Amino acid sequence: MNNMKTGSEAKPGWKSLPEGDIVPAGTAAQFKTGDWRSERPVWYPERCIHCLFCWISCPDSSIIVKDQKMTGIDYDHCKGCGICVKECPVKPNKALEMKPEREGEACQR
Amino acid sequence: MCSGCGAPIVVRQVLLASKDPVVVVAATGCLEVSTTIFPYTAWNVPFLHNAFENAGATLSGIEAAYQNFKKKGKINQHINFVAFGGDGGTYDIGLQSLSGAMERGHDMLYVCYNNEAYMNTGVQRSGATPIGANTTTEPAGKVQQGKVQWRKDLTEIMAAHSIPYVAQAIIGNWVDLTRKAEKAFSIRGPKFMNVLQPCRLGWGYKPEDTLELARLAFDTCIWPVYEVENGVYKVSKPKEKKPMIEYLKTQDRFRHLFKPGNEKLLEDIQAGVDKRWEALLAKESLKQSPST
Amino acid sequence: MSKVAARTGNEAMAEAMRQINPDVVAAYPITPATEIVMIFAKYVADGLVDTNFVAVESEHSAMSACVGASSTGARVMTGTSSQGLALMYEILPIASALRLPIVMCDVNRAISGPINIHCDHSDTMAARDFGWIQIFSENSQEAYDSLIQAIRIAEDPRVHLPVMVTTDGFIISHCLDRIEIVEDSEVKDFVGKDRKSKNGLLDINNPVSVGLLDLQDYYFEHRVSVAQAMKDSKKVIIEVADEFGKKFGRKYGLFEGYKLDDAEIAIVALGSTCGTAKAVIDELRSKGVKAGMLKIRSFRPFPAEEISAALSKCKAVAVLDRSDSWSAQGGQVFTEVRSAMFDMANRPKLINFIYGLGGREIDLPLIRSVFDSLKNVEKQPLVQYLGVRE
After folding, report:
1. At what angle do helices B55-71 and B95-104 cross, to 10 degrees?
2. Burial class (CB in 10 A: 0-12, 13-18, 19+), B79
3. Are residues C145 and C153 in contact, defined by beta-carbon separation less than 8 angstroms?
4. Domains (range + CATH), chain C
5. What is the ipTM, given to two decimal places?
6. Is the Cβ of A49 closer than 8 Å to some Cβ of chain C?
7. Could you name the CATH architecture of A36-101?
8. Looking at residue B91, what DSSP letter applies?
9. Kind of pairing, strands B80-86 and B40-41?
10. Has residue A84 got a pLDDT over 60?
């Protein structure tokens, strides 16, 4: 599978494709859907209680968690749906807020 | 997937409940098409897609091969087999294949991610589409107010197969969904879960409300959350049963129901929801399903 | 060592399946293939095989379950006919696209409508475009032998394509014949203990995704690889047949020429009709007529060059089709043979007889009439229906 190129690079011919209709797991990590966004969630770590509700609710697996703590957002794949913001239970100010894509602060670790 | 799609939420929450490795089959549909476009796959577990209406049969074949390999000592570990099908590939075209798989007793879990229409091909009605919903093949127009029929009760059909575990659930209550999935995975035999999954595109709402709407479906009792374990019904009850209108008014697909002249229709829908809710509660108080 | 036994076509195929002892069989009954499934199910119930038998609820599910099972690296078989095969049509090309070496017993029966349970080749012919290797049998012996060879052909790494081995419904499937059965251990040796593949879908440590959507940028490439495998399978069919012949004494190839080498007039046919035709040819030869026959064994892949070469010296050839393709210019076999010979500088006059649809009898007089018409072939229409009431 080393000759499998992704993105807009040269695509393999039929002679070098693996037999059948098969790929190894997880290649979609290379396909960045982040550029679909028009808004982005911004994380405020100081407010975060690490309940991980956002993580378990994210359709795009874009909440990054390490050692059971939230560490950031995968902006390569986040589509800006806003579910994480909606689900964040922290009061009075949520630990996640939606901002327009152009003005978003980078909170990625 | 569309942003805010509920289908991957179903998958993530169901699969994380499995302690053992899983092998997944998906029917053709939103989930399969969006997660596997050659050469990209979003699946980190073994995955097979065959066709639209045969997830049940395809997974049956995998499970049979597994049982054979286990018998021969080629495989020792326990593997959980899971099929994901949309309501299209499950209620309608896939019903036979699902029914056969359940009836034969394969050790597998079938999860229907139910967005109540053939979403992948552009929101056509399915047997799961609720009454009054606007879809492209049973639209709301001058002489018709969306879907004319009540939806098929597939969860009850599955319960009538006398399989060890049947559940109806929503996304939006991850504790409940993961617990149900965990229970399913702990049982050897055929299991079925029908999970309501709001679709922002087909239902018409803002993507961030996906989980809220699922919870509202539960609160209004239009989508009861319950399980049938060896014929015994256990129904989750909302803290406060909300009127149907609260749910219908949130989605574009029901917007036409609020036109003048449709008041009777709205009343009928409320009455129908209530009737079905009472019938389900009656089954629960019966303690044992008549089909076992 | 071979053992002589009396077996119908169905029994012979079931016997071969028992000896092959596949990992999974998923099958649904349909006349006239039902017996294969029933006999095999009895083997399962009596513990004579280690197979996990999935009694599916339709043929569509049978082939679907076969695809699932085969994707794990299991050795998988099934059997069907006619409407059952038709119900599988959606999944057949998926099986070949995923390069799964599923082996099917295909008992030729007419495709509805009208509904008819008797023999013709319409079911198998309609499936010729799905990337499956198609091997025709003249009799129970050939069915038994070819099914054993099919496992080796399908599982050969140069091929990895599914194979259907056909018999003629009722005519062969239900006709008791004398055959030679090979020892269980010899079949085991010939097909090998298992598929020698990794566990595919069940290989948890090396997870894969199978059956992805192809957009415009990959579908073509994936299909061409199947085409190449089909081309490469010709050589493998011959190799496996040669090995079988050396071990068990019965020779096979892509086709069989019967008194064809010096034939001036010949027929091309498939299946049981060839048995009847041999009797007519022997008759004609005893009268000094240089008659012969080309019996096609491998219809897919279609051995175009080999068939053209074998027929090149004939003056007139009648291709017998036990199916119509509704192209308004002949049956499927005729079209392919004719196309194969198109570029030859000297080629025989080719005409087509469509016969035997829905189990209509093809007997000695009818076959004699075919050879008669070859004697004045210029006067013959291109396509004729043989044995139908006008």
Report:
1. 30
2. buried
3. no
4. 3-248 (3.40.50.970), 255-386 (3.40.50.920)
5. 0.96
6. no
7. 2-Layer Sandwich (3.30)
8. I
9. unpaired
10. yes
